[in-house]
Amino acid sequence: MTPHNETPLPAAPLGRVLVVDDDPAMRQMITAYLEGYECPTIALADPAKVVEQVESGAFGLVVLDIQLGNTDGFDVLRRIRERSDIPVIVITGQRQDEIDRIVGLELGADDYIAKPFHLRELLARARAVVRRQELGRLASGNPRQRGGYRFLGWELRCKTRTLTDPAGNPVPLTKGEYSLLAAFLEAPQRTLSRDQLLQATRTHEDIYDRSIDVQVLRLRRRLETDSSQPTMIRTERGIGYCFDAPVERLF
Predict the structure, then answer these.
(1) How far, in Å, are 84, 113, 133, 188 from residue 109 at the CA level?
(2) Is 219 helix (H, G, I), strand (E, B) or coil?
(3) Can you give the pTM of this predicted structure?
(4) How does the average pLDDT of the chain come out, rounded?
(5) Residue 90 has pLDDT above 90, yes or no
């Protein structure tokens, strides 16, 4: 049954939705609305349980309020992204400087919605991000979806999105960091423009090209012995970046 006085939106399966919000009224409102559109929804007030629920594989989408009382919602998002590529929509406040939404997108959120918002818009955005992920899965002929890469003792496995260092230790990557590294490894020793890297890592139309510089800096901190003097990811001033290391593709 759809909510009263609304023209039904075109159906698109979301799977089970996990709503994370410390405001009981907001949790109840979102849950009731989504279930009115036959989207099974579980609401959590305790962010400590989020990762456990995500890792269970029982959900197809997370709606995460960044403002969680004493808990940093960005930290919750970071922990989700270290373990899963499940679509995440973050709910941000009304800050005019837009810091929350930019940080959320850079940490791997698939979309954002700012308070106050219409529940119909939330449902539309939810369906859009799930649809985008499904289209990505259908494009699994892309070599980056299979196998992996080996470079200077490091190894990236695309199926599991896991990176290990030369000593065999796992190195956590955010969704953005993984996408950026995969783009570099797909085109080693070639200069890639910021626009090319933006297209490879973009999760939302409003990400700015300067956010690529931030992502590169974070990736360097993962890979480089001294990120202030990088040897793997070289800056080509005025153009972009080059992954300056031999890469072996794994099948």
Answers:
(1) 12, 11, 12, 27
(2) helix
(3) 0.56
(4) 82
(5) yes
The predicted pLDDT at position 97 comes to 53
Question: What is the edge-to-edge ordering of all strands in the sheet holding 240-243?
Answer: 191-193, 240-243, 233-236
Q: Which residue has the tokens 């922990």?
A: 79
CA Rg value for the chain: 19
Tokens encoding 179:
């996408």
SS3 156: strand
Which residue type does 224 have? E
Burial of 124 (0-12, 13-18, 19+ CB in 10 A): middle
- What span, in angstroms and rounded, lies between the C-alpha atoms of 172 and 181? 12
- Cross-sheet strand order for the sheet of 111-114: 41-44, 17-20, 61-65, 88-92, 111-114
pLDDT band at 63 (very low <50, low <70, confident <90, very high): very high
